[in-house]
Design brief:
The chain is an all-alpha fold. 79% of the residues lie in helices and 0% in strands. The protein contains seven helices and no strands.
Amino acid sequence: MRFSLSLAYLFTYNLLQFCGHTWIFANMTARFLSFGEDAQAGTFYFVGVMMGVCQLLSLLELFHIADGFEECRLFPRFMQVMERNVLLFLLISLEEFQSKPIVCVQFYLWNTLGLLRYPHELFCLTGTPYFKILWVHQTLSVPVYFLSAVTEGISIVHMLSYWSESEGTDSVQLKVPASYIYSPYMLMGWLLLLVLGSGFTVLLLLKEREEILGSWNKKLKRD
């Protein structure tokens, strides 16, 4: 019973994440095809809530790994989850930055990672893992994550320049009273952690890809 309940929970979780990321990706693509570059400014307004829900739910994945529901390295998943949630927290609080084109690019990359990951997880949970989906997930996730980390760093750099230009004025409207969180020192510290953590994460993801695909190739040769 415990196994069946955990399986049903994981399947429901991955299905909800897949549906959420699909809705965001379809919404952004439809707006871009309809309005062109003008759609970039309203990206956060139209899909920000759903993106926030998906990223907050992704915190559960850390407990999935810690509790043994999912066999995966904890550090890469921890870095990916925290990177997105911290940047979303900054975006929610810094309203005037939400219309920047880099936000649209960032959301597209996050959704691409989700659409690469959750269908693969659903196939694995149903007991019918598909090698082509596994290969696409393991191969494309690394460069897409690298690009995502780069855009996250660019976003923080833009926030730093935006903060320095607006310092001492009332043009920056924060939704939280603890504005010291957004001081240049805190942002630079997070940028340093992002560079070091994402670099180490890429190495771990490449190692994980080699191990998983290597085991699959051995299995296919035996069959």
